[in-house]
Amino acid sequence: MTHVHGRIWRDGKTADDFEFSAISEYLATEGTLLWCDIYDPDHATLKSLAEEIGLNEWAVEDAIADAERTKAVVYKTHTFFTVYDVWVKDPAPEDNSESTLEIHRISGFVLPRGLITVRISPHVDMEKVSRRYDDLGGQEHGVGSLVHALLDVVVDGHFAAVQSLDDGIESLEDDLFAERPLRGRLQRRTFQLRKDLVALRRVVLPMREVVTALQHRRLDARNAVELDAVYADLYDHVLRASEWTESLRDMVTTVFETNLSLQDARLNIVMKKLTGWAAIIAVPTAITGFYGQNVDYPGIDTVGGFVTSTSIIVVLVIVLYWTFKARDWL
């Protein structure tokens, strides 16, 4: 079932008479700004709207497709873009290996006097976009400011997601060098963080091209200088998120490789200690085995023979233990 929410501004002032059937009239009226948000659209409704206001048919198909990459495509009468909003959710306390990210797609059609957003997921806070737009007084700057408010909220979500993954990697580093690290859980968390980072990287890195295309292809020319400044700031935030994501990729790879190196080092230490103790145990085994021969030898069946063999065992074991300990073999 298609859900539609819309807002209208006339001469910079909010109007309350939005009607979905009158979208083409709003877009044709001078001094009017339209924002129409369509959630869970059926193909027939969106296709009818596209024919009414002249949207590209391939862009319409991309807006409701199951999977699309982050992108912006410029057409003659409008610009189509697809971005992803990222939410950070709290992991279950008993399972730290669960993903902490939720990724939701938002598609948009930017027209000279309006923005039409299409989304499949209900878990996108479009009211936050509306509040951000109102707080900035965006009615004075046209549709370019409305698009900026949407992208600004999306990029803020990217920053929150990158910060969450950064905290997760720092937690991994603490567990990695713990006295008794839980190897199984550590490996599961590392693998999940790598998966989340790959998914986040796919939606963050292409945002640079999206912001550039929307900034340079604004169909409204009002307050161009002010919008250039805010878009430049937005582009800087996108670059920072992209660079941060790339650095986390190196960090999680380092954690993974360090974990393998520590496991090899601990295995070598264990083998070294086992070998040292085996050498120490071999001494009394050899002595008792020698005196266990079925031949007569000095001290057989005497207390002196028992004391002598026992003393030899104790002295040699102490010497070997001290030698191995001094060389850090135990």
The first-level CATH class name of the largest domain: Alpha Beta
Given as residue ranges, the uncertain stretches (5+ residues, pLDDT < 50) are none
Oligomer: single chain
The number of helical segments is 9
SSE string: EEHEHHEEEEHHHHHH
Largest sheet: 7 strands, mixed
* Large-scale geometry: rod-shaped
Instruction: Classify the secondary structure makeup into a structural class.
Output: alpha+beta
- The domain count comes to 2
For the termini, the CA-CA separation is 71 Å
Q: How many E-type strands?
A: 7
Structure description:
The radius of gyration is 35 Å and the shape is rod-shaped. Helix 6 packs antiparallel against helix 8 and helix 7 runs antiparallel to helix 8 (224-291). Strands 2-1-3-7-6-5-4 form a 7-stranded mixed sheet, with helices on both faces. The chain has helices at residues 23-28, 43-53, 57-64, 126-135, 143-176, 183-204, 207-216, 224-291, 303-326; strands spanning 3-10, 13-15, 32-39, 71-74, 79-88, 101-111, 114-119. It starts with a strand and ends with a helix. It has 330 residues and is of the alpha+beta class. 58% of the residues lie in helices and 15% in strands. It is built from 9 helices and 7 strands, in the order ββαβααββββαααααα. The chain has 2 domains: 3-263, CorA soluble domain-like (Beta Polymerase, domain 2, 2-Layer Sandwich), CATH 3.30.460; 264-326, no CATH class.
List the helices and strands and how they pair.
Blueprint: E1 3-10, E2 13-15, H1 23-28, E3 32-39, H2 43-53, H3 57-64, E4 71-74, E5 79-88, E6 101-111, E7 114-119, H4 126-135, H5 143-176, H6 183-204, H7 207-216, H8 224-291, H9 303-326
Parallel strand pairs: 3-7
Antiparallel strand pairs: 1-2, 1-3, 4-5, 5-6, 6-7
Helix pairs in contact: 2-3, 4-5, 5-6, 5-8, 6-8, 7-8, 8-9
